[in-house]
Amino acid sequence: MSEFETDLFVIGAGSGGVRAARIAATHGAKVMIAEEFRIGGTCVIRGCVPKKLYVYASRFADEFADAQAFGWRLAHKPEFDWQKLVAAKEGEISRLSRIYEANLLKAGVDILQERAEILGPHEVRLVQSGRAITARHILVATGASPQMLPAIPGVEHAISSNEIFDLPKFPRRLAVVGGGYIAVEFASIFARLGAHVTLLFRADNVLRGFDQTLREGLRDALAEAEVDQRFGVLPTEIVKTGDDFELGLSDHSRLHVDQVLIATGRAPHTKGLGLEKAGVETDADGAIKVDARNTTNIPSIHAVGDVTNRVNLTPVAIREGHLFADRLFGGGAPEVDYDLIPTAVFTTPEIGTVGLTEAEARATHDCVDIYQTSFRPTKATLAGGAEKVIMKIVVCGESDQVLGVHIMGEGAGEMAQLLAISLRLGAKKADFDATMALHPSAAEELVTLRNRTARHTRDED
User: Fold this and answer.
1) Is 137 an annotated catalytic residue?
2) Cα separations (Å) of 454 from 83, 213, 298, 367, 371?
3) Helices 82-107, 15-26: inter-axial angle, 10-degree rounding
4) How far is the C-alpha of 243 from the C-alpha of 228, rounded, in Å?
5) 57 closest CA partner among 219, 218, 188, 224
6) Is pLDDT above 80 for 58?
7) Residue pLDDT, tens place only, 223-243
8) Which of 122, 269, 439, 456 does the annotation list as catalytic?
9) How confident is the model over 307-344, as pLDDT tens digits?
10) By C-alpha distance, which of 264, 247, 265, 268 is closest to 256?
11) HEC assignment per residue over the chain
12) pLDDT band of 1, cuts 50, 70, 90
């Protein structure tokens, strides 16, 4: 009989934890997984899945507005039902959660629906029942939680991205605090659903870390959608006034809204896990320190996903969890390759990007060529919309290798996923040029964009 009750104990049934548990079990390991909320984690329950459903809902506003230009007569003005969307979303995420649970059970994983904490290198405790369980290996996959910052008077009246999906009443006036992808996505969603949105953030532009051309393009697109962007302005207090709120702002103005969404980032969810009892090292932000094989300084304790605060994306957590289980129980697996991860921002218009930004390329390469274009999509020629597509290809001027591609426009995320394959294979700009165009499409611009718009060398920088 084994000295341990289980081979692997997973804390957190989100994307990374579920994948690790299921793959480990298929390799023959005895696996237990504990989840204190709902199986599926942030992505399924209160993150990317419900967000994308709300993005779809918000885009119908533009579709209805454009339809008449294409010959459709709308007999009645479309009306939006917030409660119906919330209920439909709940039905879908509940369905997905049940699928996650069924897949775990099918693989033979023992599901424990309560909070777990670590007692030592090989022991955990279920908080509600008090049951202690010994495990050969422990995997922490608890993800991250919203930060309610800045810590101003009245911040307890604000909500985070956890609560925004289930508001009992649609906010006609919404303040969104933050300039990152979560903030701009919700600003875009609620503006198109009919809210007056005010976006408050510290920086002089949105989406820090993304390519500057796309940042400027999205800033202009948000303005076109009538999102009130307050650059360099943050709330200094939130005062509840009956059914709404009054915000004091750092520019000394006041703002009255129905709801305040704080979207200033997320922090690793490690508080109260007992990591210190086991001697697990964390960084200043509470993230678990792991090596390239997702193992902590304690050989029997591991971590995957956002709780490590490396690359906080669902597909990354899934890949980490899968390869971790393969290495531990399947006879070996390569380390996770974090290069050329495609990323999307699901605003409207959306952003899709893969590889180096122009600034990153210029900082690391002696010669950088830029190929850039901006144009109205075909759909807008009849509908008369102001939207535009932006595409930028970043190329090494010496080797001709494509270093990065950045797109803003309809389908940008889908394009970025496919472009990631090309970049991983080492595609050169000449390969793009030699590829036959698909006409008419927006994506054809990627292979017909022949004229270099800029060249940057180390000497000029």
Assistant:
1) no
2) 50, 13, 50, 11, 7
3) 20
4) 22
5) 188
6) yes
7) 999 999 999 999 999 999 999
8) 439
9) 999 999 999 999 999 999 999 999 889 999 999 999 99
10) 247
11) CCCCCEEEEEECCCHHHHHHHHHHHHCCCCEEEECCCCCCHHHHHHCHHHHHHHHHHHHHHHHHHHHHHHCCCCCCCCCCCHHHHHHHHHHHHHHHHHHHHHHHHHHCCEEECCCEEEEECCEEEECCCCCEEEEEEEEECCCEEECCCCCCCCHHHCECCCCHHHCCCCCCEEEEECCCHHHHHHHHHHHHHCCEEEEEECCCCCCCCCCHHHHHHHHHHHHHCCCEEEECCCEEEEEEECCEEEEEECCCCEEEECEEEECCCEEECCCCCCHHHHCCCECCCCCECCCCCCECCCCCEEECHHHHCCCCCHHHHHHHHHHHHHHHHCCCCCCCCCCCCCEEECCCCCEEEEECCHHHHHHHCCEEEEEEEEECCHHHHHHCCCCCEEEEEEEECCCCEEEEEEEECCCHHHHHHHHHHHHHCCCEHHHHHHCCCCCCCCCCHHHHCCCCCEEEECCCC
12) very low
Q: In whole angstroms, give the CA distance from residue 335 to residue 323.
A: 7
What φ, ψ does residue 144 adopt, rounded to 5°? Answer: -135, 160
Find the distance separating the first CA and the last CA of the chain, reported in whole Å: 67
Task: Please tell me whether the peptide bond between 349 and the residue prior to it is cis, using omega within 30 degrees of 0.
Answer: yes
CA atoms within 13 A on the CB side of 176: 30
Single-letter amino acid, residue 389: V
C-alpha dist (Å) from residue 361 to 34, 262, 299, 433: 43, 33, 37, 21
Q: Which two tokens stand for residue 279?
A: 């001697």
CA–CA distance, 18 with 11 (Å, rounded to integer): 10
Tokens of 191: 């503006």
151 CB-contact burial (10 Å; exposed 0-12 / middle 13-18 / buried 19+)? exposed
- The Cα–Cα gap between 391 and 97 comes to 37
